[in-house]
Amino acid sequence: MSADSKKAHNFIESLIKDEISSGKHAGKVVTRFPPEPNGYLHIGHAKSICLNFGIAETFQGECNLRFDDTNPEKESQEYIDAIREDVQWLGYEWAGDIRFASDYFDAIYDFAEELIEKGKAYVCSLNAEQMAEYRGSLTEPGRNSPDRDRPIEDNLQLFRDMRAGKYANGELVLRAKIDMASPNINLRDPILYRIRYADHHQTGDKWCIYPMYDFTHPISDAMEGITHSLCTLEFEDHRPLYDWVLDNITPPARPRQTEFARLNLNYTITSKRKLKRLVDEGVVEGWNDPRMPTVSGMRRRGYTPESIRAFCDMIGVNKAGGTVDVGMLEFAIREDLNARAPRAMCVMRPLKVTLTNYPEDQAETLTLPVHPQNEAMGTREVPWTRTLYIDREDFVEEPPRKWKRLAPDQAVRLRGGYVMTCREVVRDSEGNIVELKCEYDPNTLGVNPEGYKPNGVIHWVSASDSVEVDINLYDRLFNHESPDSDKEGDFLDHLNPDSLVRLTGARVEKSLAQPRNDLPYQFEREGYFFLDAGASEPGRPVFNRTVTLRDSWAKAKN
Ligand code: ATP
Ligand code: MG
Question: What is the percent of the chain with per-residue pLDDT over 70, rounded to a whole number?
Answer without folding.
Answer: 97
